[in-house]
Structure formats: structure tokens, C-alpha cells
Amino acid sequence: MADHNPDLVAVARAELGVSIAEMREANKRWQAMVRSPRARAAASRYRSILGAPESTAPRTIGDLTCEARQWPLPLWPDLRFEVLVAPNGSVWNEWLVRAPGAKGPALRTLADLTPWSCTVDEAARAFTPARPLEGSAPTRWGLSFTAPDTEGRRREVVAEFTWGLLQRVAVGEGP
Known about the structure:
Layout: H1 6-16, H2 20-35, H3 42-50, E1 55-61, E2 64-72, E3 79-85, E4 91-98, H4 120-126, E5 131-134, E6 140-148, E7 154-162, E8 165-171
Antiparallel strand pairs: 1-2, 2-3, 3-4, 5-6, 6-7, 7-8
């Protein structure tokens, strides 16, 4: 997320009491674990790093059934890190979602779409129809939709998400 919003990451690091060196070292260890030829399966990797999930629940997406595992996050108490695990143990998706019972943001206009304010599913529900876009990496998504500006004019929007959390918005002319 630091490549999109370095100022927000700096504030988050300070809030968590983590130095730049510690952040880089944690990322280095994570990347080494993910890319190791003896890497654990993704589902067990999350359990070994994050501990037991706070919750697990069956989830049906279309005609596919999986298990949704969620972990709390110290930085974002209203969000959970969610991993969707297939019956064979493979990970289908991993992203940030709103915590059960937590109130999401009121997304009505472009002004409401600020970095780290909403998840990809919240933006997709608020600004329908939204078209998913391929991201630049497995942990990145995009959405294309129209949304009103503060004066009510409809604008073309491309929203970019990392780990399911809004990072930036590009606004074009109206439809």
C-alpha cells in the first residue's frame, strides 16, 4: 500500500510503533516465505503467521462452496482480513472486508471515495453497475463505474484497490 499512499502508511506505522526498517524486514520475510520452493500451502501459511482465525464460516459464491476465515486487524478494528479456502485447501481469495456488525461508510459521491475508506465490495454495491477490472498484481483489483460528483454530475471512475481496500480513484468525464 505504500506505493499508492506513503503518507497513510507512515501514519499507520507510527500508530503501530513500527519503524521503516521493521516494515521492510517483515515484508522481506513474507516474500521469502511466499516464494520459497518449500513454501507452505497458502491456507496454512496464514494460520502460522496470524494464528487461529477469529471466525470461520461456510460461504457460497455462485455454485461454489468454500470456507471464509477472518482475522482481526489492530490498525483497522472495523475490518477483517478474509481468506476464502476451497474444499481442497487452496486459497481462492484474500482481502480486507468489513467486520461483522461494523457499519461501512456512506458512499454517495466521488468525495466519499477517499483512500482506505472502503472495501472493493462496498464500492461495488454503492455504485452499481460496477465492472471489475484486472489488477496489476494478484492482491490488486480495479472497479469501473459511474458516480456523481458533489454537484450531481455523473463521472466515469476507475477505482484501484490493494488487498481489497481503496487506494486511489481516477475520474474522467461523464458517460
